[in-house]
Amino acid sequence: MERLKNKVAIITGGTGGLGKAVVSVFLNNGASVFSTYVVKDQFAECLSVKEEYGERLAYGKADVTKSKDMSKVIDRVIEKFGRVDILVNIVGGFAVAKIVDTDETTWDKMMNMNLKSAFICSKAVLPQMIKQKYGRIINIGARPAIKGSSMMSAYGASKAGVLNLTQSMADELSDYNINVNAIIPGTMDTPRNRKDMPKADFSKWVKPEEIAEVITFLCSKDGDKISGATVPVYGKT
To answer: What is the pTM of this model?
Structure first.
């Protein structure tokens, strides 16, 4: 069943591990997708997907922490597809360090990549969604956002901001039929994580495709009554 048939989605970071899974699941569910990217090599790896889906899939290079870049993205999407129904804020970063070793550069990087990006991208799509009186926004949180964790002060604080932003937007936008929710992924089964944690039990990790399915549910008609939620998708970890 095509749960997102005729919907238009913007997925930030759609060329990364989780992003590629969300792009694929959305396309298979009938959506048209515009994906942002910054890494040329990752984009090159996705060209075969572009060839498969043709005009239903488009890519654009953009720094999602800059309003000017996102304004251009919105203009391109409206020109090509006529509307914006869904935004999935996947772009983010990760850093590990003791608080005494966390410098301002690392702190600012986490706030920009995780929190500012979600704010900038959401603000960019909202005029169109409000005009349509319809929209779905999905943000990506993290476990340290719920309970502070050693060595993750900057990362956890930035993701806690994402969850607060999610709830604030959900409350503020409810009159416009715009739902805003957040996903809390467990450790994802990606090549990068397997390389970084070779001794872990990969079978307990959650697959990016499984997270993508939950995101699809929240963006579909089945998720119409869910807004302001923080949804854990932990796998067995």
So the answer is: 0.96
For the chain, the domains span 8-233
Assign 3-class secondary structure to 19-62: HHHHHHHHHHCCCEEEEEECCHHHHHHCHHHHHHHHHHEEEEEC
Q: What 3-state class would DSSP assign to 102?
A: coil
Architecture of domain 8-233: 3-Layer(aba) Sandwich (3.40)
- Which of 72, 203, 218, 62 shows the shortest CA–CA distance to 138? 218
Q: In whole angstroms, how far apart are CA 27 and each of 6, 172, 188?
A: 10, 30, 21
Q: Which parts of the chain sit beneath pLDDT 50?
A: none
SS3 call for 132: helix
Q: How many Å apart are CA 214 and CA 216, to the nearest integer? A: 5
Residue 45 corresponds to which tokens in the numbers above? 């790896």
Which pLDDT does position 51 carry in this prediction? 87
Which is the catalytic residue, given 53, 155, 176, 234? 155
Question: Catalytic site residue 176?
Answer: no
72 phi, psi to nearest 5 deg:
-65, -40
